[in-house]
Amino acid sequence: MVPGSGRRGWFDGSVLRVKRFVVFSLFVACASAAFSFWLLGQPGAGTQVSAYLPPRAGVKLQAGPGGIATAVDVTPSPDAQWLGTAAAQTGIPARALRAYVGAAAAANESAPTCGIGWNTLAAVGFVESAHGTYGGGSLSATGQASGPIVGPSLNGAGFAAIADTDGGALDGDASWDHAVGPMQFIPSTWRIAGRDGNGDGTADPFNIDDAALGAATYLCGRGRDLSTAQGWTAAIYAYNQSSAYIRQVSSQATEYAAKTGTSR
What we know:
Elements: H1 5-40, H2 80-90, H3 94-110, H4 118-129, H5 187-193, H6 208-219, H7 229-239, H8 243-260
């Protein structure tokens, strides 16, 4: 070995490692900046987040003695007359609308800073499964989907590749995951966000009460404030990482609020 060559090799290796670290850091910074610009609507992003934020639709909850809002099952329920009128105005099945209203009210009660509107949940439900009617299905009086609502295989062919996480228990596929139920939860996500919205002791993604409450809980997660443009957009992006999806949910939620009135 030539004297000093070992030290020189160490120095060259150190420089190479530093260069790699700098390049990696710049890549991360650029990627983070690009996402931040998109999310916050900075110049160059081509998108203004504030344009996405839909109004929060108003609602009248069912009241008991003394005017206190009461719950049928676990979650608060909308006033029957309001429910019938709003369902007719929006085209949302009354059974699904009741679940969205109850889930939003329950989520806002447990996380007062969330500020989620039932129309946001309804818009997600419309985009995901046409309120549980996809493929000609319907919801029963108890909120159960008439047939299994199972999305395509997430096997990487045109969709993300997500290997099976539930042994096929929810989606019937022990090889790959599928999104399931009216709100289209991936089994691994349902395991975290799933909730029992109707008080029957089971968190079932194929039941609209459970699915809606699970969705509301998920959207309100991480302390998000859906009354702000940034919070609302981040919540919908977390549900489905697609700008086209965000636009569609925003448009639908805005339409529901326009047809039923707003609370802000």
